[in-house]
Specification:
Blueprint lengths: L2 H18 L9 H7 L2 E9 L11 E12 L6 E6 L8 E10 L4 E5 L5 E4 L13 H30 L5
Parallel strand pairs: 3-5
Antiparallel strand pairs: 1-2, 1-4, 2-3, 4-5, 4-6
Amino acid sequence: MNRKLSHTIIALLAAFGTASAVLVWPFTSWDDLTRNSPDIVIARCTTTPDPKLIADGQIWSEVEILTVLKGDTKPATANMVSQYWPHQDEQFLMFSTYQSNEFHRAYNATEAYRIIPIDRNFQIKELTGKPLTEQIRLILSRRIDDVRIDWTGLRTRIRQAQGNPK
């Protein structure tokens, strides 16, 4: 095989590999994510997805949209595709793009950081009447509190297991 042909084959393989990959963007800020996400919703996973990943690492899930914070979609059942693997009855804030075509209809939240788990006891009605930035700030603040509580409980259990009750 001559050198020119081998370079052409390598270039085509590289182009095909790049074209078939899912683009994953780095996190920049909550403000950027809010501004660049056409659809921001609170959803609940209706069924834990089977432990099968599609070739590009995206997980398809069935969700129920509980409320729409931004966008033109309505509360209903839908599909979600993301690197995030939700569990049945888990609620979360989703920064996404709703896509509908002849092949599928789904909320696309490719990167895992686009999904923020919400405590099951979170009262969605607390968001009513607040501007979008305040709604998101409230949800993120609650999530930080939940993680802090989980971490404190874990630290306490580790200390107790080690015989150090402090």
